[in-house]
Amino acid sequence: MQFEIGSHLEETELEQYSMGTLSEERLAAFEEHLLACCSCQDRLLEMETYVNAMRTASPKLRAARQPFWDGLFRLPRPVWLAASVMAMVASAVTLVWLVAPSTHPQIASVALQSSRGIEGLAATKAPAGRLLSLTADLTELPAFPSYRMQIVNAVGTPVWEGVAHSDGRSLTQITNRNLLRGQYYVRLYAPSGSLLREFSLGIE
């Protein structure tokens, strides 16, 4: 499929997409640009890496700050306690820079296949730690201009979803999540919300 890249995505839109708050009216054009633009894929991955790193560090920082405020209103605490809090903040900032990717994210192309019985489980394989370009054949499915695609884990918990656009015969969608190793299922829904097809996906 060929896409017109056009101008790069705005920082606020990347943030809204990462948080799942981008408007439906803007979502289709946004994901179409993201599919074709390596630069915006890189910026989106950097933003999500930063957010995830700060979420991981935040509980530790809150726990470390509590004794400091207790010391202001109760008993004095040694100076090294304040220094340790500052060291944790510096470590968290350093962690963000260390984990941020320095190159364009690698995207693995995955052709989804319908599973049939026990032999079909995890018939489609994909590498862990990469964005995925998921392609699905629409043969024998009702024709719609777009479909909702969702990835769930082995117990049915959703881990990603997006809107994929069709060319009439197939559709392709890039995920913005790196999946861990394990068994997953990709579900394809009609715009009305009815489930049309399910594909098995093994992440190795």
Write the layout of secondary structure elements.
Elements: H1 11-19, H2 24-36, H3 38-73, H4 79-99, E1 107-111, E2 124-126, E3 131-137, E4 146-153, E5 158-165, E6 170-174, E7 182-189, E8 195-203
Parallel strand pairs: 1-3, 2-8
Antiparallel strand pairs: 3-6, 4-5, 4-7, 7-8
Helix pairs in contact: 3-4
Task: Name some characteristics of this structure.
single chain, 204 residues, alpha/beta, Immunoglobulin-like, 4 helices
**Sheet with the most strands, sense and barrel status:** 5 strands, mixed
Question: Total number of helical segments?
Answer: 4
Structural class: alpha/beta
Alpha carbon gyration radius? 21 Å
Tell me the domain tally.
Answer: 2
What is the number of E strands?
8
Distance between the terminal alpha carbons, to the nearest Å?
Answer: 27 Å
Give, in spatial order, the strands making up the sheet with the most strands.
2-8-7-4-5
Percent range for β-strand residues: 25-35%
Q: What is the N-to-C succession of helices and strands?
A: HHHHEEEEEEEE
**Estimated helix fraction:** 25-40%
Mean pLDDT: 77
Low-confidence stretches: 117-122
